[in-house]
Amino acid sequence: MPHRPTVSISEFSVADGEAGPYGITCGPDGTLWFTLVHHGQIGRFTLDSGATTHQLESASGGPSLITTGPDDALWFTEFRGHRVSRITTAGDVTSFRLPTPDAGPFGIAAGPDGALWFTEANADRIGRITTEGHVTEFPLPLSGAFPSAIAAGADGRMWFTMNQGNAIGAVGATGDVVVHPLPTPDSAPVGITAGTDGALWFVEIGAGRIGRITTEGQIDEFALPDHASRPHAIIAGADGSCWFTEWGANRVGRITADGHVDEYDLPSPSSEPHGIAQGPDGAVWVALETGALARLTTG
């Protein structure tokens, strides 16, 4: 029987219940940065100082996912504002409007080429933005695919989920796209991350499964104990496993490389766990849409 890690969970209030902590990442300054999707703010958190927030130009832009860029700044998408934006660790914000109207940028990740890559959920496109703000867009071969999260693969390509296309895609530096349909119908993949095993791991919010795809396109799916748990985001852990949020079940899960799953209930009921990140302290951190960050440490 695989060892089940002992997990301790603490929660830290960072906003009121209406602000909506959503995306989260570890910043270049060794602190946690997160989006407040309903208030149009970016937050910063340390255990010593708590949370500080930076108001964006538009309170209704819907800042969604956030990542550290190659320029030691934080980059994030504004799904409703149709912008990709940058915030320095000092709080200075620059926004870049996208060429395609109503594009709905959502996922974002740093690429191996020194640029940021992002998804345009409403426009069936993958975008690339340089740190100077130059944007290139690449169309997908599917219509209505709703590309969602994105991550850099070990093969130099960017890998992304197609939530409504029921597929995983990979895009090369010149915009060539390969599509890998998923075996399970209506699986609605969302979060994706590069695993320590060289494969990509993703969540299927519609099917209650965790998926793994190699860079050659071989797919494995692992059913969660609760089919209705609605897994949302996923990250690679320091121990070779992956950690993920279960938005519909108020839990955080862990899956090993061979598919063994452990689940941990969050202390506050109906806390709506969304984004997840490996923190600077070695803990796993989760953004709870009800206004807090959760910290998970393993014993």
Explain what you see.
This protein is mainly beta. The protein contains no helices and 28 strands. It has strands at residues 7-13, 21-26, 32-36, 41-46, 50-55, 63-68, 74-78, 83-87, 93-97, 105-110, 116-120, 125-129, 135-139, 147-152, 158-162, 167-171, 177-181, 189-194, 200-204, 209-213, 219-223, 231-236, 242-246, 251-255, 261-265, 273-278, 284-288, 292-298. The chain has a 4-stranded antiparallel sheet with strand order 1-28-27-26, with no helix packed on it. The protein has a 4-stranded antiparallel sheet with strand order 2-3-4-5, with no helix packed on it. A 4-stranded antiparallel sheet has the order 6-7-8-9, with no helix packed on it. A hairpin with a 4-residue loop joins strand 3 (32-36) and strand 4. The chain is globular, with a radius of gyration of 18 Å. The mean pLDDT is 97.
Task: Name the features.
single chain; 299 residues; mainly beta; 4-stranded antiparallel beta sheet; 51% strand; globular
The run of helices and strands is EEEEEEEEEEEEEEEEEEEEEEEEEEEE
Number of helices: 0
Question: Which structural class is indicated by helix and strand composition?
Answer: mainly beta
Quantity of strands, as a count: 28
Whole-number mean pLDDT:
97
Query: Biggest sheet, open or closed, and with what strands and sense?
Result: 4 strands, antiparallel
Shape call: globular
Strand share of the residues?
over 45%
First-to-last CA distance: 18 Å
Which stretches are low in confidence, meaning pLDDT under 50 for 5 or more residues running? Answer: none
Global Rg? 18 Å
Proportion of helical residues? under 10%
Q: Could you give the order of strands across the largest sheet? A: 1-28-27-26
